[in-house]
Amino acid sequence: VQLAESGGGLVQPGGSLKLSCSVSGFTRPFSTLSMRWYRQTPGNEREWVARIDAADVRRSYANSVKGRFTISRDTVKKAVYLQMDNLKPEDTAVYYCTAQYGGSNEVWGQGTQVTVSS
């Protein structure tokens, strides 16, 4: 089972980035996985950012990113995305995607660094 994030980097305030997370190795279909994005800065706990349910019906966001970030998924590519617009310095963090199934099981990726700085 593997989740691989990509798309991080350095961007100026007000800029955009799109993170990707590819999913592989699951014996269950990708369409049965609920997917989330989290982020973490040094010395702080991981913060939940966004969630998309398995059926791609409901999406939810942390208040800190609502209106600026958009989560989406592609069942054919087995991938989840996080479009981040109007980025702010406080969005700087390592971003992780997770796959949830069976109520309490959650698998994490290795993370990708996003730095927002002028």
Distance between the termini: 37 Å
Series of secondary-structure elements, N-terminal to C-terminal: EEEEEEEEEEE
Rg from alpha-carbon coordinates: 14 Å
Poorly predicted runs: none
- Overall 3D shape: globular
Q: Which structural class matches the secondary elements?
A: mainly beta
* Fraction in helix: under 10%
Mean pLDDT: 95
Strand content: over 45%
Count of distinct strands: 11
Most strands sheet? 7 strands, mixed
Put simply, the count of helices is: 0
Could you explain how this protein is built, in words?
The chain is mostly beta strands. The protein contains no helices and eleven strands. The protein has strands at residues 2-6, 9-11, 17-24, 34-40, 47-52, 59-61, 69-74, 79-84, 93-101, 105-108, 112-116. Strands 2, 4, 5, 6, 9, 10 and 11 form a seven-stranded mixed beta sheet that branches. It has a four-stranded antiparallel beta sheet with strand order 1-3-8-7, with no helix packed on it. A hairpin with a 3-residue loop joins strand 9 and strand 10 (105-108).
